[in-house]
Prior knowledge:
Elements: H1 4-32, E1 37-41, E2 72-76, E3 84-85, E4 88-89
Antiparallel strand pairs: 1-2, 3-4
Amino acid sequence: MNTRPFAITALSLSALVAGAAFAQDNAKPAMQDKTAMEKCYGVSMAGKNDCAAGPGTTCAGTSKMDYQGNSWKNVPAGTCASIKTPKGMGSLTPIKS
């Protein structure tokens, strides 16, 4: 029995399976990067906001107090209103202090 054609076929199939597995592994991180985010006001800790913390601040990391109502943090879309803080729930709009 000639095993050469069998060996070539087995090698080819192994290469195809490995290529398909490699392609799927690379696809996962790209899909995770596309997670929708939204601005959630009143949930960041002092100095941990993502941007826009109101008068007297410039941008990211400039909030002056925990849960500052006019500073926001990026959170996964649809989760903001369910984030509970000592001052209440997160908000999609700035919270007046």
